[in-house]
Each structure stands twice: as C-alpha cells, then as structure tokens.
Amino acid sequence: MMVRLNTRHELPQLVTRQTQPRLESAAIIQPRTRGGAHRQAQINEGATQPSLSIDNYPSRRAYGFRKAGDLMAEQGQRGIADAQSFTGRLSSEGWSKATTAARRGNDVVQKIKSDMFADYQARPVFTTAAIPDPQMQGYQGEVVGEPDTGDVTVDIETEPNARIQYTPGSVETFLQSKGYIRHWVTMDQYDIYA
C-alpha cells in the first residue's frame, strides 16, 4: 500500500472596486456685459454762408445823398458859420459906416444898392472832386461746431474660473478570500473529491 499526499489549495482573491471619475458638468461662464453707454456719434457741425458787406455811403454822400443826421450836422455847422460871418460882417460894416458915413463923396445909399445886387451878378462856382469807391468786405464761409465722437463703452464682467462639477474617482481594494493550502494523506489513490 502506498501513501498518497493530497494537496488542495486556493489562491487568495483580491477584489478591486473602482469608480471612474466623473465630470458632471463643465461650463465656461460666458462674459456678461453690464451698463454700457451707447451715445451715437454726431457731426454737430455746420457751415456758414459766405457773405459780402458793401458800404456805398461815401459814394452816395459825394452825390449829395446824405443821412439825416449828417445833413443836420452839416446844416448846423453851416448855420453857425454863416451867423458868425454875418455878425462879423455887420459889425465891421456898421463900424465902417459909423466912422466914414459923414465924409464927403461917400454915397451910402449907392453902396447899399450895389451890395444888394451883388448876389444877382455872382457867377456859379463849380468844383470837381473824386467820388470815393464803395467799400466792400467779403467774408468766407466757415465750418462751425465741434464733432461728438460718441461713446460705445462696454463693461465686460468675467469670472476667473470655469464652473466645474467634478466627482473624483475611487479605487477600493480588499481581500475577498484569504486562500489556503491543505494537505492530507490517503492510501493507494488520490482523493479527487475532497
């Protein structure tokens, strides 16, 4: 009879339970605009019309067309001058008549008659003078106003990070069975059912 050594073994079993990491949502937070003044650009400019200023009063005055104020001023000065010269002439004539009237050969009546009719025998006096040109002043058109460049300011608000919902994965390892080695002895044959 022969002794047989029977061996039965089972390897230890390690179990690994693994959870995959999950990225449930990931989103970039879009920038947001806030406020923002939108003022349209405007020209705000215009052009003035060219103009021409003509002063023809010196020419008209030379022809005798005067303003009422100038005419009155001239007549006033002429009246004062005529009154002064007439008064002076009357004074000198009166003084002359007073001193020479009694002399012989001095015909006072004849002298008065000749003075009275002297104006009728006077000849007209004409004078020529250059007539001044009208004064003209031209003004060119101008662009006036200030343009408004407008304002398109936009405040952009951004987030420093993306919005992420993340579940980390895990690995769990444990021993499901320890395993074993068993030996026993049988006679003449192996124990295949053990």
Describe, in plain words, how this protein is organized in 3D:
It is a single chain. The protein contains three helices and twelve strands, in the order ββββββαααββββββ. It is α+β, with helices and mostly antiparallel strands. Strands 1-12 form a two-stranded antiparallel sheet. The protein has a two-stranded antiparallel ribbon with strand order 2-11. The longest helix is centred in the middle third of the chain and has 33 residues, at 68-100.
Q: Write out the strand line-up for the largest beta sheet, numbering strands in chain order.
A: 1-12
The percentage of residues in β strands lies in 35-45%
- Element pattern in H and E: EEEEEEHHHEEEEEE
Helix content: 25-40%
The count of β-strands is: 12
Distance between the termini: 20 Å
Count of DSSP H/I helices:
3
What's the average pLDDT?
82
Major β-sheet annotation? 2 strands, antiparallel
Q: Which structural class is indicated by helix and strand composition?
A: alpha+beta
Anisotropy-based shape: rod-shaped
Strands, helices and their partners?
Layout: E1 3-10, E2 13-19, E3 22-27, E4 32-39, E5 45-47, E6 51-55, H1 57-62, H2 68-100, H3 108-121, E7 135-139, E8 143-145, E9 151-157, E10 163-167, E11 170-177, E12 180-187
Question: Which descriptors apply to this entry?
Answer:
two-stranded antiparallel sheet; alpha+beta; 194 residues
Q: How would you sum up this structure in a few lines?
A:
The protein has 194 residues and is of the alpha+beta class.
